[in-house]
Design a protein that fits this description.
The structure is a single chain. By secondary structure, the chain is an alpha/beta fold. Helices cover 26% and strands 26% of the residues. The longest helix has 17 residues. The chain starts with a strand and ends in a 26-residue tail after the last helix.
Length: 284
């Protein structure tokens, strides 16, 4: 296995103009590829303001314009591209979907957000994704020459069961395109990313949009990379920018050897069933 994954994480503002957002994403991908990144991550809803009332207007089918541009960018730049998420339409349903492309432009992964963000915080955030979105039902792990990567989306990070399922499939890097808000972000974002890194003994990436105070939904930003010891090894604040660095899988194996918590899981007492073979049932 090639240990030299060079990871690039893009934190960008999202415009109400889809063309502007797509052009910005393409420029950033090209820039990071030129600097040596071979795995690049975009944030959640990078082509659409994060407002449920807008998802249908910005939605595209698989194979649509955003998909095609990201596919071409992955191939042109020779990178694995975890293309954030977009609102995806299929039939009469909308999904919050991440598409993943390899350096030849092949689709190698597709994750539809499993856990929908429905919250009503007293004196804080109210948001109901389930009013417009349908949940996915697949655990998503892709194979790369650098090792397996698990893909999940934003609110999915709150569920260690999903992270464990990705870990059980061999994922050593967990990537969460996300857009935590100014209520839950300061309280929980760092804590959750570090917790998933610790309980799975994996590298964890949270990739968010940059903060835009003129937006109807204000992202907390603070994209970060956490190592398997739970240490933050790269972090942005609220501004546009990027993180880039080498992910050392040998470090991961050393940590797992010294603190073998995964080996100590009591599988004789408890187990998780894979969601990919047990579809969720919608309750009306």
């Amino acid at each position: 296995m090639n240990q030299n994954m060079v990871l690039g994480v893009i934190q960008m503002k999202v415009s109400v103009n889809k063309d502007e957002s797509l052009e910005k994403a393409l420029r950033n991908i090209e820039y990071l590829a030129e600097k040596g990144a071979n795995v690049i991550v975009l944030p959640e809803m990078f082509n659409c303001p994060y407002e449920t009332v807008l998802f249908k207007d910005y939605a595209e089918k698989e194979g649509g314009r955003t998909y095609s541009l990201m596919q071409k960018s992955a191939k042109d730049n020779g990178v694995y591209l975890i293309a954030g998420t977009i609102p995806e339409i299929e039939g009469d349903k909308l999904y919050n979907t991440a598409f993943v492309f390899d350096p030849e432009g092949n689709l190698v992964g597709k994750h539809r957000k499993i856990h929908l963000f429905d919250i009503d915080i007293r004196n804080g955030q109210y948001f109901m994704e389930s009013e417009v979105l349908t949940p996915g039902n697949q655990v998503t792990v892709i194979k790369t020459p650098f090792g397996k990567i698990g893909i999940a989306i934003c609110y999915d990070v709150r569920f260690p069961e999903l992270a464990r399922l990705m870990g059980d499939q061999g994922a050593k890097l967990l990537v969460y395109p996300a857009s935590f808000n100014m209520t839950t972000g300061p309280a929980h974002w760092e804590l959750l990313l570090r917790s998933r890194a610790l309980d799975q003994q994996a590298f964890v990436v949270g990739c968010a949009p940059a903060r835009d105070y003129e937006s109807g939904y204000i992202s907390y930003g603070n994209s970060m990379i956490v190592n398997p010891w739970g240490e933050i090894i790269g972090r942005l604040q609220d501004e546009e920018g990027y993180l880039m660095g080498e992910i050392d899988m040998e470090e991961l194996e050393e940590i797992r050897d010294q603190l073998p918590t995964i080996q100590h899981i009591r599988r004789d007492l408890y187990e998780l069933k894979n969601l990919s073979v047990r579809p969720l049932t919608k309750i009306d």
